[in-house]
Amino acid sequence: MKKVEAIIKPFKLDDVREALSQIGITGMTTTEVKGFGRQKGHTELYRGAEYVVDFLPKVKIEIVVRESEAERCIETIAQAARTGKIGDGKIFVTPVEKVVRIRTGEEDEAAI
Questions:
Q1: How far apart are CA 110 and CA 83, in angstroms?
Q2: Nearest residue to 5 via CA among 30, 34, 37
Q3: How far is CA 29 from each of CA 5, 6, 25, 64, 86, rounded to the nearest angstrom?
Q4: Could you write out the DSSP letters of every residue in 18-81?
Q5: How would residue 41 be classed by pLDDT, with cut points 50, 70 and 90?
Q6: By C-alpha distance, which of 108, 102, 79 is closest to 91?
């Protein structure tokens, strides 16, 4: 099993969710996060004063999938989240050793 974590622009969340749903991936966890990469934030003007916004709002999506579904999941997220501009985000993939569904006690792929 693999855990796919994606950091994307907030307005792309619905597009990503719908694209994943179309390939049969329905379960995910999302978190509102803040961060920056190469963008390094930007400056904004508020009531005549300029200030630096260091951390930009992003959404983190976490999905655990069977190893056979991982590549398709990654490609789907990348396509749905892409705007072609700086700050589109990143996808991280890590192995998952064990999954347990608390309600039933099912384990591993049966618990996904």
A1: 35
A2: 30
A3: 10, 11, 12, 10, 24
A4: HHHHHTT----EEEEEEE-STT--EEEEETTEEEEE-SEEEEEEEEEE-HHHHHHHHHHHHHHH
A5: low
A6: 79
Percent of the chain surpassing pLDDT 70: 89
Contact 25, 112 (CB under 8 A): no
Q: What average pLDDT score do residues 54-78 get?
A: 94
Query: 17 by DSSP, 3-state: which?
Result: helix
What pTM did the predictor assign? 0.84
Tens of pLDDT, residues 4-19 = 999 999 999 999 999 9
pLDDT score of 44 more than 70: no
SS3 label, residue 84:
coil
